[in-house]
Specification:
mainly alpha
Length: about 200
């Protein structure tokens, strides 16, 4: 399992690439390319190429990949929203009592589906719930640990961000560290669940 110090160090292993993140400040023409770049980062980490942030690469390729990634994320968000409404309407009492567990399972399975999209760059394969459930059900404890590590990373970078000029570094670093932890979880979870 990935160590917390590796997640903290990852964004700084190629410091100049840390600032690519701020491209998102440009409406549309920054949003999609940075989403494509994050997709590329996930993919590199899943492949085990996780020594440093990847090179930005071709702008329009990142733009296109980021656009499709955002469409997938929007679709997944709508599906999760509808599922939550159905669960609340059909089983309000159970939903209230079991809410933390249900939210944890939905979060974990959603993470797997996102990583499947990253891995295959294919809408149909990304929605393979059977494969996703197999991975999550066999690695839910590892996912819980990753959630705690993500929380620790975000809190640490938030505290450092209280020193005003440092937020220019800490905001992208936090996002890249979280992406690194998430992709590493998926890479290791696939092996543990013995899926291709």
């Amino acid at each position: 399992m990935v160590k917390l110090k590796e997640a903290f160090a990852y964004p700084f292993n190629n410091f100049k690439r840390l600032f690519i993140y701020w491209l998102f400040l440009i409406p549309v023409f920054g949003w999609f390319p940075i989403a494509g770049y994050i997709l590329k980062l996930y993919k590199e980490v899943i492949k085990g190429k996780s020594k440093e942030l990847p090179a930005f690469g071709e702008y329009w390729k990142n733009f296109k990949n980021g656009f499709y990634f955002c469409v997938f994320l929007l679709t997944l968000g709508i599906a999760v929203f509808i599922l939550n409404i159905i669960l609340t309407v059909l089983t309000p009492l159970i939903r209230i009592v079991l809410s933390p567990i249900i939210n944890f399972v939905i979060s974990g399975l959603s993470t797997i589906l996102i990583m499947q999209y990253v891995e295959y760059f294919n809408f149909e394969k990304s929605w393979n719930l059977k494969r996703g459930w197999k991975i999550f059900s066999k690695t839910w404890t590892a996912y819980f640990i990753i959630v705690l590590k993500v929380f620790a990373v975000e809190i640490a970078f938030l505290i450092i961000s209280l020193i005003p000029p440092l937020f220019v570094i800490t905001i992208p670093a936090a996002n890249y560290s979280v992406a690194y932890l998430t992709a590493n979880y998926y890479r290791e979870a696939k092996k543990a669940a013995r899926v291709k």
